[in-house]
Amino acid sequence: MARVSQQHLDARRRQILDGAAVCFARNGFHATSMQDVLKEVDLSAGAVYRYFSGKEELIAAIASEVLETVRGTLEQAARESPPPTPDVLVPRALATMRELRPATLDTGEWLFPRLMIQVWTESTRNPHLTAVLADGYAKIRTAWSGMAQSYKDAGLLPEDADVDAMARAMIALVQGFAAQMALFGDIPPQTLADGTRALMAIGRPT
């Protein structure tokens, strides 16, 4: 029997996750059945259950991947000199997600923002997913705190600034933009940059 390569296993796992993401974004988590996922990815039940035990494990895996991608983007940015300011970094984080997960719905709408809403909603009733999100967001807060420290080191932020409070505010800003996209349609990257830059300018002399 031929040995299946790790590359093949990874590609099959990616296929299943991407197909499940489309289903969840299109119809919602609870309205999606595993049969819907099987049809979307055009695989047998055995092929899918080899990787995931059910919908709960699928959505937890999707959420973990997204959070890890955001964390990696922030950690890489923190190593830049000078560090990119939030008006650059917020659009970049969303652009990175769009590049890595470009799938759209039948309407042409980018599915990622809708998927985020589904993950948040399900986390209110699913303790396992809540734990996954709590761990992921803790890592993102740490990464944002690292960004804030890099701003301090570059003289862009006062030394007495609360880096954890800033991290929470920046997470809320990204979440808010994503929620607007899910509810009201796409937002041009320039709008994200301009809006964030305007917030950063409050209190500065004109």
UniProtKB/TrEMBL annotation:
Leader sequence segment: none
Gene3D superfamilies: Tetracycline Repressor, domain 2 (1.10.357.10)
Domain HTH tetR-type: 10-70
DNA-binding region(s), chain positions: 33-52
Stored InterPro entries: BetI_C, DNA-bd_HTH_TetR-type_CS, Homeodomain-like_sf, HTH-type_TetR-like_transc_reg, HTH_TetR, Tet_transcr_reg_TetR-rel_C_sf
Keywords annotated in UniProt: DNA-binding, Repressor, Transcription, Transcription regulation
Pfam family, any one: TetR_N
SUPFAM superfamilies registered for this protein in UniProt: Homeodomain-like, Tetracyclin repressor-like, C-terminal domain
The protein's name: TetR/AcrR family transcriptional regulator
